[in-house]
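Technical note accompanying the year-one report. For the benefit of new consortium partners, we illustrate the data format agreed upon in the data management plan: each record pairs a sequence with a structure-token string. No post-processing was applied to the example shown here.
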Amino acid sequence: MVFYNCIAIAHKIKSQKTMSLFHELCKHAQFNTGIVEVSTHVRRTVCKDADVNITNFSKHINILKEAGLIKDRGGCSYIINPQAIWKGDLKQRDKMLKDHTFYIEFGIK
């Protein structure tokens, strides 16, 4: 179970559509890597399922990158921050955290 609303609050993301897109991207993340290859077909699918206009895809992606929830791998490839969401073995997650730099900043009032 994932509480996306708590993730949104922690990362100061106000847009429900941005979090819906994040949820859909997480569903497409590869097991044990968190990598999401966003082909044209995947982009259409995640936008449709998140109820996001495809012309706003890049805007929502930039919000997620700025929040530290995803990292750009170049091209149309992203990696989900394993500190936020992880699909896979815990040992592999620990390895990912050592091999990649992720920054998450948040404040709680």
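Partners are asked to follow this layout when depositing records. The longest helix spans residues 16-27.
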